[in-house]
Specification:
Distance between the termini: 53 Å
Number of domains: 2
Order of helices and strands: HHHHHHHHEE
Shape: elongated
Structural class: mainly alpha
Radius of gyration: 24 Å
Strand content: under 5%
Mean pLDDT: 79
Largest sheet: 2 strands, antiparallel
Strand order of the largest sheet: 1-2
Low-confidence stretches: 165-182
């Protein structure tokens, strides 16, 4: 048993109702309050942090609850804003000849690790520069370059050499540069 587990058990046994009531003050419903409390407990005890007594552990978790609530609120707000931006964009449907290529590109993008995919989309769909991508994702420029390079190599391997990116910030259309060979 890890050294922090008995303290977590003590906090959950004796202090959870008070901590949950505190979380309810910030949230809309009981389920959300429970999620906030759970995240605060993970944040507080997740790195093997030890506390000298249950009072200090409770105080630490209580301090973490508003931070967790704000982080969750920001995340929801960011997601909502992203959905609104996507909804405002007029869908550009490719003609029948390019639909298969678009589906291939989407499938290949889905296979990329999350950060590589984010870098590729920001670079070619949003037409951001490497420094802008680095700033947006809170990464070093060299890291962004590596992700772009790795992702480009993986996409080239998955798609072959018959696909190229065209377009700017709003479109980044994918078009077939030459017909695909059978068996690819």
């Amino acid at each position: 048993m890890a050294r922090w587990e008995p303290m977590l058990d003590e906090v959950m046994r004796s202090r959870a109702p008070r901590l949950l009531a505190y979380a309810r003050l910030l949230t809309r419903d009981d389920a959300e309050a429970e999620d906030v409390l759970q995240d605060a407990l993970v944040r507080s005890f997740g790195r093997g942090r030890s506390f000298p007594d249950a009072d200090r552990a409770e105080a630490y978790v209580k301090q973490a609850i508003p931070s967790v609530f704000i982080d969750r609120y920001r995340s929801r707000r960011s997601l909502s804003a992203a959905y609104e931006r996507l909804a405002r964009r007029a869908p550009t449907l490719p003609d029948d000849g390019d639909r298969a290529v678009v589906l291939d590109v989407r499938a290949a993008l889905a296979e990329l690790p999350a950060r590589e995919r984010a870098c590729i989309v920001l670079r070619f769909y949003d037409d951001l520069t490497v420094p802008q991508i680095a700033h947006r994702l809170h990464l070093a420029e060299g890291t962004v370059k590596r992700y772009l390079s790795d992702a480009s190599s993986r996409l080239a391997g998955a798609l072959g050499e018959d696909v190229e990116w065209r377009g700017g910030a709003a479109t980044a259309a994918v078009v077939a540069a030459r017909p695909r060979k059978a068996g690819r």
